[in-house]
């Protein structure tokens, strides 16, 4: 363990004690109520929030705001994945936080919002990464537009917390269908900035569609 990482661990432990993260609805991302300076919030998922420190560019801290026991599964997933260009790596963990390798890039969700063209190679990269995970005994789950990122021209997966769930998840299959049937015929040819209000409406509509579909299946 390097001296830089040792010092970062101490900062992460201080952050863990002082950051306040709440969850009001299990279907919505957690929310950060309090974040000490100079930490910056990079994003919030269904279980945890991710923070970056301006002095340490190579690491992020992921702190669980609910279902804290789930951190054990995520630690195991990173152990099985090892080192792979389409995934982050876990350098250290505490009771409710992980220190991960930082990945710079733009999520597919934000690419559509900002009018950034998503190349077919990105979709292919994710397919290869998911197959790699399956060969490692994992079950890719909850792979969607906010968990997939374009980083230096490559597709990467930034959230693997549910990769031990042994049930079918059609999110990536559905996203690819939308990409091939809709995106390539429209926004790929003429990239436009799509407001978050519309994108969130699509996301909520998709959630309701899946709930209704499960009811009648």
From TrEMBL:
<keyword id="KW-0418">Kinase</keyword>
<dbReference type="InterPro" id="IPR011009">
    <property type="entry name" value="Kinase-like_dom_sf"/>
</dbReference>
<dbReference type="InterPro" id="IPR052396">
    <property type="entry name" value="Meiotic_Drive_Suppr_Kinase"/>
</dbReference>
<keyword id="KW-0723">Serine/threonine-protein kinase</keyword>
<protein>
    <submittedName>
        <fullName>Serine/threonine protein kinase</fullName>
    </submittedName>
</protein>
<dbReference type="GO" id="GO:0004674">
    <property type="term" value="F:protein serine/threonine kinase activity"/>
</dbReference>
<keyword id="KW-0808">Transferase</keyword>
């Amino acid at each position: 363990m390097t001296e830089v990482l040792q010092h970062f661990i101490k900062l992460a432990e201080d952050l863990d004690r002082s950051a306040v993260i709440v969850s009001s609805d299990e279907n919505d991302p957690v929310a950060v109520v309090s974040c000490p300076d100079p930490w910056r919030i990079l994003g919030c998922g269904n279980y945890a929030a991710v923070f970056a420190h301006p002095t340490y560019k190579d690491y992020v801290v992921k702190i669980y705001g609910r279902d804290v026991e789930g951190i054990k599964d995520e630690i195991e997933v990173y152990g099985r994945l090892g080192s792979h260009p389409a995934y982050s790596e876990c350098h250290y963990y505490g009771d409710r936080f992980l220190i991960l390798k930082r990945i710079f890039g733009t999520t597919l969700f934000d690419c559509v919002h900002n009018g950034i063209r998503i190349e077919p190679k990105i979709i292919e990269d994710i397919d290869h990464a998911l197959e790699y995970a399956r060969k490692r005994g994992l079950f890719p789950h909850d792979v969607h537009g906010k968990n997939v990122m374009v980083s230096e021209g490559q597709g990467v997966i930034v959230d693997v917390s549910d990769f031990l769930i042994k049930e079918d998840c059609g999110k990536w299959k559905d996203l690819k269908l939308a990409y091939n049937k809709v995106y390539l015929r429209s926004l790929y040819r003429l990239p436009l900035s799509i407001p978050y209000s519309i994108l969130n409406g699509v996301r909520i509509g998709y959630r309701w569609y899946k709930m209704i579909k499960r009811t009648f299946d």
